[in-house]
Amino acid sequence: MADIAFLLLIFFLAATTMDSDTGLMRQLPAIPDPNVPQDINKINDRNILEVKVNKDNLLLVEGQLTEFSQLREIAHDFILNANDEPNMPEKEIINIPYFGDVPVTKAVISLQNDIGTKYGVYIAVQNELIAARTELRDELSRREFGVPYERLDEDRKGSIDDYIKVPISEAEPKRIGE
Amino acid sequence: MAKFVKTGKRTIKALNTSSLPDIVFMILFFFMAVTTMRETDVMVTVRIPDATEGKVLEKKSLASFIYIGEPLETFQVMYGTEPKIQLNDTFKEIDDIQDFIAQEREQLNEADKTKMLVVLKIDRDTRMGVVTDVKQALRRASALKIMYANTNVERIVLQ
Fold first, then answer.
1. A with B: how many residue pairs have Cβ under 8 Å apart?
2. Structural domain tally of chain A?
3. Tens digits of per-residue pLDDT, A61-91?
4. For the whole model, what pTM was predicted?
5. How far apart are CA B120 and CA B74, in angstroms?
């Protein structure tokens, strides 16, 4: 009896893995339909935070060379725009369940990379941007509902997601110098 | 005076093993419950990047895996050291991704087809060129939900 059990045990030890996969969830944009006319109203320049990682894995935010460690704070301040400065993202009054009429930021983060950029650095940058957004959602959740964002039900999570939407767009790849 | 009398030979009794199968079965069931079947043999070196915001993959049955990295040493003779794309158990090219996605989608239920998720397991030292190509191929195959696999850490240290 014990022999058979041992045999099965060893089989399962060899044939299975224990690790669970973790990762950053992203939604790719659909390929634009060439027959449908493109949306011409471009996003206002002040609403876009341009983040670029060049071939030497250096980080450029709005064209300025930036330390990796500062990125989260920059993104945080950009989305929040606490003092309603004119060169920072606009806000639009939208009615959101649980919140009522609130100013919703129109901020968009655009992430660009070079062909030679290292994947590890690219993911690290993307992680910082997602972290900045998650931090803001968490702050809001704690202020409004008194609990961390993670513990909210789907309805309230949805409302917060609508309040702080901030799409992180991965720009259409450009092949420079080909 | 007390006498020390040896009554017969001292023998060590054999250990009672009648409960051994129960214990082993218990361990067996534990492993059956917490582990998942190994599906593919990875033929490339993949050191997935670190991140802090990674979410756990909930439904493994909806996920298809794409591995990108340097081939293992045994395959380097044939395939070289440039990063290669591995789909299922073979090395493939960018153009094969569309077929692969169609094939994987076929295997899902009608209801789950829209929930299909592609997990990208890419080595951290890979150049973005090939990653971008794969992403474009996925867009063409309209597999838009993707997950960049990473290991969760407390703090990211960039090398």
1. 152
2. 1
3. 988 898 988 999 999 998 888 888 888 888 8
4. 0.81
5. 23
